[in-house]
Write a structure and sequence with these properties.
This protein is mainly alpha-helical. It has one domain. It is built from 8 helices and no strands. The longest helix has 26 residues. The chain is flat and about 45 Å long. It starts with a helix and ends in a 14-residue tail after the last helix.
């Protein structure tokens, strides 16, 4: 019984093949343009009014929506729904359990995963979005539920627009695979 348990950890297949150079360049270009668009607006426009539009989880979203465009986890429904649901859950967890940050963090991430599964919006960076709502510091906490709109929904939407434009330039790339 114990042997069977540990044998599961050996894996069942070989590593997937690498991607061609063109795929690498298009992924790089999309990620550069997507993150730079969000960061530029954040630092040049919103910082002056005390808002931000860039959060760490967008880095992981960039990997998916520019580098793994066929993945179900990278589709628009998942990108937007995963981030927004997770942001709301993260804020609610922080507000309900803020004296116990460890509990708020654990509840935010685990509940975000459950809700993303239930709504078919699973997007791994959403877990980070929920966690950032809890541990993000005073600037994030002051936003309250606005955190779900800006930076989260607006930033993810801008990254999506860039993904739609860049990922459809080459003939061999097509994004998205599905919307709903």
């Amino acid at each position: 019984m114990l042997r069977n348990y540990f044998n599961k950890m050996r894996g069942i297949s070989k590593s997937p093949p690498g991607v061609n150079f063109s795929e690498i360049i298009w992924s790089w270009l999309g990620a550069f343009l997507g993150i730079s668009t969000v960061a530029l607006i954040s630092y040049k426009v919103l910082d002056s009014i005390g808002l931000t539009m860039i959060i760490g989880s967008f880095g992981a979203s960039a990997v998916l929506i520019y580098g793994a465009i066929k993945s179900p986890l990278a589709q628009p429904r998942n990108l937007l729904g995963g981030h927004v649901f997770s942001a709301i859950i993260g804020v609610a967890s922080y507000q309900a359990f803020q004296p116990h940050i460890w509990l708020a963090a654990a509840l935010a991430v685990s509940t975000a995963i459950a809700v993303m599964h239930a709504t078919k919006t699973l997007h791994p960076p959403g877990g980070a979005t929920a966690l950032i709502a809890v541990i993000g510091g005073e600037s994030v906490h002051k936003l309250g539920y606005l955190y779900a709109v800006i930076p989260t929904a607006v930033g993810a939407s801008l990254m999506l627009v860039v993904a739609l434009m860049v990922n459809n330039i080459p003939r061999n790339r097509r994004y998205p695979e599905f919307w709903f």
